[in-house]
Design a protein that fits this description.
The chain has 84 residues and is mainly α. It contains two helices and two strands, in the order βαβα. It has one domain (2-83). It has helices spanning 16-24, 38-83, and strands spanning 9-12, 32-35. It has a two-stranded parallel sheet. Strand 1, helix 1 (16-24) and strand 2 form a beta-alpha-beta unit. It is rod-shaped. It starts with 8 loop residues before the first strand and ends with a helix.
């Protein structure tokens, strides 16, 4: 259910025996990521966020460039109008 809300789930600090027991009991761990400790989990989360931020910036750049182009055209148009 939490995966539908965009949440990443981590199992942190479990000993191998505990993981084996969970799997043996048939606990559904699909979509649960394993991490050695809290620091490892946070590093993974931050790495993904940095990648997503870079992707967002790349998608925003064309719109920013279009705005700059429109501003340049408007300035040029005003300059041409003053010259006549």
């Amino acid at each position: 259910m939490v995966r539908l809300m965009g949440v990443r789930v981590f199992a942190v600090g479990f000993r191998p025996g505990v993981v084996s027991s969970l799997i043996g009991l048939g606990v559904d761990l699909d979509g649960v990521e394993a991490a050695r400790d809290l620091e490892d989990a946070l590093e993974r989360l931050l790495a993904v966020e940095e990648i997503e931020d870079l992707e967002d910036e790349e998608q925003e750049r064309p719109a920013d460039q279009e705005l700059e182009d429109l501003e340049d055209k408007a300035q040029k148009s005003l300059s041409d109008g003053d010259a006549s």
